[in-house]
Specification:
- With about 190 residues, this protein is mainly α.
- The chain contains seven helices and no strands.
- It has helices at about 1-30, 30-60, 60-85, 85-110, 120-140, 145-180, 185-189.
- Helix 1 runs antiparallel to helix 6 (about 145-180), helix 2 (about 30-60) crosses helix 6 (about 145-180) and helix 5 packs antiparallel against helix 6.
């Protein structure tokens, strides 16, 4: 159990540090951030197209072959569109990020009201969830404000989220250190 607590706290702290680094990069180079997201999406789409084509040709019946080839063509088209028209692709990615932040924030808020957590941990879940929801609402309300502004908000969001994860990880680690395993004598009693 104690290894699990230490592993959880370490992963939360590392996730927080990574999020802060991503936030700093996004704020320092907002135009590059949006372009990088579009390029990553294009690479993902091209890889998905190749994998779907491979799955199509490994199937023995006609139905899955047609379905996988259709998915491969859709993914290929999405990758080409992302490369040829990065502006509209960035707009769609903004909507996807907004949905992700909104849903993730609602889940964190819900987790904050679950029993079994300390008051500080519940407050941390609720605060980080509210930040996520606010970020999602802003993006949905004004997706046309420009990719640079979105990149800056993205960076700010990741910095706040990262610091909250670091704080939560430290809190979990402190709780794990406060709990002591029972000695063999206490177990026998």
């Amino acid at each position: 159990m104690f290894k699990s607590i230490k592993s959880t706290s370490t992963s939360m702290i590392l996730l927080g540090i990574l999020a802060v680094i991503v936030g700093i990069i996004a704020i320092a180079w907002p135009q590059a951030t949006i372009l990088a997201l579009v390029i990553l999406f294009a690479v993902y789409a091209f890889m998905d197209a190749g994998l779907q084509a491979a799955r199509a040709f490994s199937s023995r019946s006609a139905g899955p072959v047609f379905g996988h080839l259709l998915l491969a063509l859709i993914s290929l088209a999405a990758g080409v569109i992302a490369v040829v028209w990065p502006g509209p692709t960035a707009y769609v990615l903004v909507i996807v990020v907004a949905a992700w932040a909104l849903v993730g924030g609602l889940v964190e808020i819900f987790a904050g009201f679950q029993s079994g957590e300390t008051a500080g941990m519940r407050a941390m879940f609720i605060v980080s969830g509210l930040v996520s929801v606010a970020f999602g609402v802003v993006l949905f309300a004004r997706p046309d404000v420009g990719a640079v502004t979105i990149a800056l908000l993205f960076g700010l969001y990741f910095m706040i989220y990262g610091f909250s994860q670091i704080a939560a990880g430290v809190h979990v680690r402190q709780l794990g250190n406060a709990v002591r395993p029972l000695s063999p004598v206490q177990k026998a009693a």
